[in-house]
Design goal:
single chain, Acetylcholine Binding Protein, Chain: A, cell membrane, Methane Monooxygenase Hydroxylase, Chain G, domain 1, alpha+beta, two-stranded antiparallel ribbon, 17% strand, postsynaptic cell membrane
């Protein structure tokens, strides 16, 4: 930036005895239009550091002249002036610049005309009280911070922010003048870009590590389940083998006739006291 533009009301007052008149009870001042300025003397004021200027003409020439009875003349004009101002943008946009509008007489010297602020300079220059900076309300992305598995939304937000920062840096550098030193806004935008890109890399790293940890936990869980099932099957097999070996060493209480040993040769009846009987045959036929 090497210039600035100001829209203001430029008022000048001077005394011309030739324009004095005798006031009446109802008229003590005359208010005339811009056409009278071509018929009276006016200061040849110009702006020494002006680069461009405009007289406003909507709907008519924005100027008026007031002539008092004692010859005091007040001329007011609305102007838009672009003036040059060498600026130091090292701390932009937190910089402070001191720019001036140089007012001089084009043809007269200081012996003929002198400029001074009216009322000792108090209230001669003022700024409107309604000038305000735009207000913005920044909303956070709480819905993305609540859900850790919202990968599409998080990636889209990070990539969009990176592209936005890149576009903002390009447009800012294109709008500012080409200077040889680093500005504060370059440091700020560069830091913001690095932080946004680092947050995107952080999410990618955390997501990758989280998946690896989850896979490792699943693997350990599966190994533990397999070891537990193998332990249970081994215990069941050992119990079955022990039961089988125990049953092989104990005789059955009921045996089939085909598998019984030979009956005894003689036996006694303990209830009757009879003498022992000797079977005649080992066949199944009853004795005669």
């Amino acid at each position: 930036f090497k210039d600035f533009t100001a829209d203001f009301y430029f008022r000048q007052s001077w005394r011309d005895k030739r324009l004095s008149f005798k006031p009446s009870k109802s008229i003590d001042a005359l208010f005339v239009g811009s056409e009278v300025s071509d018929k009276i003397w006016v200061p040849d004021t110009f702006f020494a550091n002006e680069k461009w200027a405009q007289f406003h003409q909507a709907t008519t020439f924005n100027t008026f002249i007031r002539i008092r009875a004692n010859g005091d003349v007040l001329r007011s004009i609305r102007l838009t002036v672009t003036s040059s101002c060498p600026m130091n943008l090292q701390y932009f946009p937190m910089d402070r610049q001191l720019c001036t509008i140089e007012i001089e007489s084009y043809g007269y010297s200081t012996a003929d005309i002198k400029y001074k602020w009216g009322i000792d300079g108090k209230g001669s220059v003022g700024i409107s009280d309604v000038v305000e900076l735009p207000q913005f309300k920044i909303k956070g992305f709480k819905e993305f911070s609540k859900t850790e598995n919202a990968s599409p939304a998080r990636v889209q937000l990070g990539v969009t922010t990176v592209l936005t920062m890149t576009t903002l840096m390009s447009s800012t550098n294109a709008a500012l003048p080409k200077i040889s030193y680093i500005k504060s806004i370059d440091v700020y935008l560069g830091t913001c870009f690095v932080m946004v890109f680092a947050s995107l890399l952080e999410y990618a790293t955390v997501g990758y590590m989280g998946k690896r940890i989850a896979m490792r936990k699943n693997r350990h869980t599966q190994v533990a389940k397999f070891a537990q099932s193998h332990r249970i099957s081994t215990m069941m097999a050992a119990a079955a083998a022990a039961a089988a070996s125990k049953s092989s060493h104990q005789p059955n209480s009921i045996e089939m006739m085909s598998g019984t040993p030979n009956p005894p040769i003689a036996f006694a009846d303990s209830t009757t006291g009879e003498s022992p009987r000797v079977p005649m045959s080992s066949t199944n036929n009853p004795p005669v």
